[in-house]
Please model this.
Amino acid sequence: MKINKNEIEQFISPYYKNKDIMHNMRHIELIKKKTDEILKLGNYTVNYKYLMLAMCFHGFIYSDENRIRQWLAEHGFCDEDVDLIIKIAWESQRCETPETIEGKILHDAHILEGGKTYAVVKTLITGSVRGQTLNETLEFMKKSVLNQSRCFLPETQQMCSEMNKYTDEFYKSIMKEVDF
Model:
């Protein structure tokens, strides 16, 4: 069950290599930074190793869960531990309340990864990379981003509220200024 940083990076790097600039390896670094910040704020007792592994896998859990399971088993994790790591990774992706504290932390860190302005930046860049027009991206923002972010931990709820408020104000401002 010993895994070093290089082994993890070697395994996950191909999955993030061809992702857009908002979902590449830098994305993992930002989530780690926010995760560590949340852990300090909340003084939580967690399985940090499993939290970090789930964080590394969250960006491709939906496409390669079986390969992740296989890799973890090859590195000595028992079925129960593999299931827990997978659960935490999935919990970061879902809207419903995560069951594990690690899942709540990872979910909230994923939501807040770059601070209150990041939802706007991420939406605009991701829309551009997908080839959307600005109008299409703003429509996506209206339907899927505005007031959609939700955090579960007491330490993160105010940050999430500020991010939602900023995103809403940005959207209202641009819609006033730009004729669509």
